[in-house]
Amino acid sequence: SDDVKRIDVPNIANQHNASPKHSNFKKLKDPKDFQTMLTKMSKEIEIKNRTFENQVMDKCFVGRDAITWMQNKRYVKTRITGLKLARKLQRLGYIQHAGGKTRNVGANSAFEDEMDCFYRLEIP
C-alpha cells in the first residue's frame, strides 16, 4: 500500500558512513601486531593444565575462550571471523593444537571454536 515506506538500506548505511569494516576494530597487519595481540590474550584468557578423556595437556587454553576474547577485545566482529583469524594464526605457528576433541587426527587439526578443543600459544 501507499502507507508503507520503502527503506533503501545501502543509502542509510552511506548516510551514517557505516561499512562492513568498522574503523573501531583493531587492525592486524604484520607479525608484530599478531605477537602483541597474542601476548595480551595470554594474560587475559585462562591458560592452565587440562585433562580431557585421559589426555593431559599442559598450559593450554580453550578454543572457544580465544574466539570470545577476540570478539570482546574488538579484534573481530563475528565468531566466524574469529575462527578464520585463529586458523591463520595457527598456520603461522602462533597457535598449536594441544589436544581434546578433533575433527582431524594429528597436529594439523584446524582450530575449532569449541569448549573441548585445546591449544597452546607459541609467541616468539
UniProtKB/TrEMBL annotation:
Residue ranges the record marks as coiled coil: none
Biased composition range(s): Polar residues: 12-22
Any Pfam family hit: DEP
Domain DEP: residue ranges: 41-123
Entry superkingdom: Eukaryota
Region (Disordered): 1-29
GO annotation, biological process: intracellular signal transduction
InterPro entries: DEP_dom, WH-like_DNA-bd_sf, WH_DNA-bd_sf
Protein name: DEP domain-containing protein
